[in-house]
Amino acid sequence: MTAKPEVTGFFEPRTSSIQYVVADPETGKCAIVDPVLDYDEKSAATGTKEADRILAFIADKGYEVEWILDTHPHADHFSAAQYLKEKTGAPTAIGEKVTEVQKLWKGIYNWPEFREDGSQWDKLFADRETFKVGNIPAFVMFSPGHTLASITYVVGDAAFVHDTLFMPDSGTARADFPGGSAKALWHSIQDILALPDKTRIFTGHDYQPGGRDPMWESTVAEQKAQNIHMAKLKTAEEFAAVRDARDKTLPMPKLILHALQINTNAGRLPEPEANGCRYLKIPLNALGGAAW
After folding, report:
1. How far apart are CA 288 and CA 275, in angstroms?
2. Less CB within 10 Å around the terminal CB: N or C of the chain?
3. CB-based contacts of 195: which residues, under 8 Å, 6+ apart?
4. At what angle do helices 49-61 and 81-88 cross, to 10 degrees?
5. Is 110 exposed, middle or buried (0-12, 13-18, 19+ CB in 10 A)?
6. pTM
7. 6-263 maps to which CATH number?
């Protein structure tokens, strides 16, 4: 935990997502965490503006990409992992529980031919498995709750928690997606907050409460003292009651049915059909949470 990587966040305003480049300043090796592939739902157009912004930054810094890391299959944006792999040659990785998410969504999308073995990524990490970014030690913590497959990457003194903890003034992530669990999320957050107090926490979204500027970095100590959920709610049952009640008021993310068929496939777009076009498959009435 003494190693201190350089962490640069890239805020993507369309989905309020934060993407990261985490680098070892000694070796110039880096990892990209949760990159976004641009998607406009009105025109169904895809683009690489966000991913190219990251590549330009890496080129300017002279970094070498060692890893392209997903924390989980996202429900609100497309992953640019495959695009960045094609551009950099770096391996892609995610937690091994992604296979459970693939099985779940394979059924929702009625995809008999879809591979549910996680082979779309180059590496499936086990819980507490170690790796390195340059010379900086890193390890993986399973963090289920938001999804079955959610993980946290701890690289030196930096923890990339994505949809578990938000900034302290925003609390915690929802847990009502297929396979989600508020009680599991509570226990995952307890594991994260058991890290040393000085551990830097990097979250994956910021919805700018009160109209403030985007923020994405805090510490374990700040989360324990100030998080509007974790500083007040003291048991898994208490947390789950508050979290479940809040989640019942939230509509499903507008891109969930678009994004999961891309992101359970490691950021690969559907193959072109005979006319050269690619098509998304949207199952009707498969999810609750309609906001009429």
Report:
1. 34
2. C
3. 1, 154, 159, 220
4. 40
5. exposed
6. 0.95
7. 3.60.15.10
